[in-house]
Amino acid sequence: MKYLSLIAALTLVSCQGILEKEPLGILDQGSFFQTADDAVQATNAAYEPLLISSGNNNFYWAFAELTSDEAVVGGDGSRPGLTELDFFTFTPRTEEFNDFWKLNYQGITQCNTVIERVPAISMDANLQKRVIGEATFLRAYYYFQLTQVFGDVPLLIKITPPDELKAPATAKTAVYAQIIADCNQAASVLPVQYAANDAGRATKGAALALAAKTELYQKNWNQVLDYVGQIKALNTYALMADYQDNFRENTQNNSESVWEIQHTNLELGVGNALNQWWCSKKLTGGYGFAEVTQAYFDSFEPGDPRQKFTIASNNEPYFGVTYKNSFSSTKHSPRKYLQIDSTATQKADGDINYTAIRYAEVLLWEAEALAELGRVSEAQSPLEVVRARARLQAANPATALPPVTLTDQTAMLEAIRHERSVELGFEMHRFFDLVRWGIAPVVLPDFETGKHEVFPLPQTELDLNPALKQNPNY
Predict the structure, then answer these.
(1) Which of 159, 167, 283, 412 is 20 to 30 A from 11 (CA-CA)?
(2) Closest Cα partner for 4 from 182, 252, 198?
(3) From CA 190, how far away is CA 211, in angstroms rounded?
(4) What is the total count of domains within the chain?
(5) What's residue 29's pLDDT?
(6) Is 70 exceeded by the pLDDT of residue 17?
């Protein structure tokens, strides 16, 4: 499934832009939203802000990685906001926050438009339910990302006239409730799978998984287990035998993929920009904006093959060349989402998708929820499934990654947290994990309790909307 752009009149803008012009649904209800094709195209447009592309300037990855203990900024200083994120010196005027706010509200506005306008179209009922379900899920996903980054944010669930947009932020708990409601609604109408030409559209499993993740963030452990049970009951997902198949251009949308952002075979400007942003500066076109810390490299257990699958180090093959210590100030660089130039559309338009939720993560949610509930012995099983896949790819499976048989709750939770780090490294989870676990102040030396749990609201939005209040201590 390709994320198709619509005609200029249908191009949406942020909350900021909405405050400056009439909303799309009012302007175009007479000329658009007439046919089933209109409904599908409008829904396709709701996917576009997901893209981690140079055209979108989507720096969600920087919020998750550069602020964490996995990476330092590297690069050439051309993106000062990235340096600010690394050193926790960011402010409400840091450009990346404004870009991210606009991008997500652009997606939300498009979703609201689909949800409100498509029901009036005379079209196949099942297709109609599906596209509305897709938009409902996408709205939930955009709001989940916004709450991760900013905490309380304005909750807009309908096409809203400009004079009604200057409203205060909604409490995160209420936003979470809307996310859960949207996920449940979407799961009730979305298919479990699609035909190949529609790969990448939101599925029932994706909706259930986002609901599970939202409950995880609220520490509603029983609800997490309930959603994980529903995901397993679909009999759709399984770990790939080869861990690296989750990050190769020819093995995407596989059995481990629960929610995958499509970057393959798209027009220029909307491919995966991590292929350029993360690639070492020593390679033509690489920016080297994320370099792997020695501490993260050292955190892998002896013999864990995921270390080499995730991190490039001295004298190892590196996308057509041999990696050298000089390729990074830390002597290590990320591997995920990078590819040899001959297989990419161009350096800034990588063809490797970003899988936002893998089935391995679902299993680790299950393990975490079980351990948090004191069901420590039961937590061993899903944790072992994840470790066993990695063990089988080790040079010496007989000794690598022994099964975790801990019975102490605290020790088991620590083991699960470690497993998340090494299994999901550089997949844009780490900083948010450290915050939700309450250990960010311990792990991150520049982290200030009572401030850095969320990022500042963009100053541009505060200037446009006096009802918004800045997050504490910014």
Answers:
(1) 167
(2) 198
(3) 14
(4) 1
(5) 52
(6) no
